[in-house]
Design goal:
With 363 residues, the protein is mainly alpha-helical. Helices cover 72% and strands 0% of the residues. It folds into two domains: 180 residues, no CATH class; 75 residues, Helix Hairpins. Helix 4 packs across helix 5, helix 4 runs parallel beside helix 10 and helix 6 runs antiparallel to helix 7.
Length: 363
């Protein structure tokens, strides 16, 4: 048996055992393969678990307990696979010893199956061994039935091997009673309700996530549209700047064109005034020249010098010199420096005609 102070250490030893250690203890793995030596193994397990003289240490009792638990669970395998397992709750810390005690003390196969699922989740390798051991028991069922009567003769009629394990569990119950309601299915409805709430929450979270993703997609699309609008606005601004520059340049050109047109109009008027003055001067001093316009200046080259210069036949050399100076002063280039080049050409032509006429008159 166990003392009160040994229970915590016993739990740690059972929890820390590996399947390999378990199968090597008392040749457990070898005995199960042989089949015939299992009954003797059960007797040894009972002696170790119910040892009152401290012959066996805690390590032996921990190994014996777990082997006995595996054998008991394998022998009740059908009760661990109910088609409709109950939803069970286990309060507090869960360990291997607690689950075994709950499995043995379970009231219904459905409740036992629910606890077995917890055991399988936490201790998968041990559970696989229990499943394998259950298959071995099914195969060797007839052989075990044939030898069971002879083996029972070696044990006491009121304490078969399975009862030895149960007696040890009762001893553990006195040392550390199971928590009230541990492993019960009374909270199944609340658990189902909680699961339903959790499922609804998952659905709501999925729906919210979906809405958030759609919103994020819309935001991205709007951001792209904003970026496009900004690019368009920037391009329009650049185009607007170009249009303003073009309009300014066009206005400047139009202003220059107006200035040129005004200058041409002024020159035209100046030309007409000069033409009129030339005509008046020619008529007044020379009795008129055979010209209809300044475009016929070339005809004056053969005109009479006196008529061209506005002098009489008795003009002296001094008169010719004075007339030459008058024409030079009238048609000097300084007087027309602000006018277009064609005016200077006309003045040069007129001055040449006047000088040539003076030269002919001197001869």
């Amino acid at each position: 048996m166990l003392a009160d102070a040994e229970y915590a250490e016993f739990l740690e030893l059972v929890e820390g055992q590996s399947l390999r250690q378990l199968r090597r203890y008392l040749d457990y793995g070898k005995r199960t393969r042989q089949g015939g030596a299992v009954a003797e193994l059960h007797q040894w397990l009972g002696r170790i678990l119910l040892d009152r003289d401290s012959v066996y240490g805690l390590e032996d009792k921990a190994s014996a307990f777990e082997i006995a638990a595996c054998e008991w669970l394998a022998g009740h395998w059908d009760e661990l696979n109910h088609p409709e397992p109950a939803v069970v709750t286990v309060a507090g810390a869960v360990d291997k010893v607690l689950l075994v005690r709950l499995l043995v003390s379970a009231e219904t196969p459905a409740q036992r199956t629910g606890l077995a699922q917890l055991f399988r989740q936490r201790y998968g390798r041990i559970w696989s061994w229990i499943s394998e051991r259950a298959s071995q028991l099914v195969v060797s069922e007839e052989a075990e039935d044939g030898t069971e009567a002879a083996e029972d003769a070696a044990s006491t009629p009121d304490e078969p091997e399975s009862l030895l394990f149960i007696r040890f569990l009762e001893h553990l119950e006195r040392l550390a009673p199971l928590p009230a309601g541990a492993g019960s299915s009374g909270d199944a409805e609340r658990l189902r309700a909680a699961e339903e709430r959790e499922e609804r929450l998952h659905r709501e979270i999925a729906a919210t996530t979906n809405r958030a993703e759609r919103a994020a997609t819309r935001v991205e699309r709007l951001q792209e549209e904003v970026a496009q609008l900004r690019r368009a606005a920037r391009e329009e601004g650049e185009n607007g700047e170009k249009l303003r520059e073009e309009r300014t340049r066009r206005i400047r050109i139009e202003r220059q064109a107006r200035d040129v047109a005004q200058e041409l109009e002024r020159l035209k008027n100046e030309y007409l005034r000069l033409d009129a003055r030339m005509r008046e001067s020619a008529q007044r001093e020379g009795g008129g020249l055979p010209l209809s316009s300044l475009a016929e200046l070339a005809k004056l080259a053969d005109a009479d010098p006196g008529r061209l210069l506005g002098l009489g036949p008795d003009a002296t050399a001094e008169d010719l010199a004075r007339t030459r100076r008058r024409f030079a002063a009238a048609f000097h280039s300084d007087r027309i420096s602000q006018l277009p080049p064609w005016v200077a050409e006309v003045f040069d032509q007129l001055l040449s005609l006047a000088n040539a006429a003076c030269d002919r008159a001197r001869r």
